[in-house]
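Model it.
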Amino acid sequence: MEKFLRLAPDLLVALLLWLLLLPRWRQRGARHAVMCTIFYLYLCGVAYFTLETREEAAAILDRIRTHAPFEGDFTRGLYFKGTN
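Modeled.
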């Protein structure tokens, strides 16, 4: 419940944005509006479950500012592995 209350302003903005976009989607047809709405809800769900807490975000920003190493292993991506 605490996470929901913390994210309530963000969810309100997401709802308002959906209400603004819905008429445009309906102009392209009901099927398009349904598809865009489902995708929009999916993205809102992803954002809800992947957000860090304020403390975690502050710790990450502090590490970036001080050029401190991050915790855990890095793969450095495919570029550094010479695969591309």
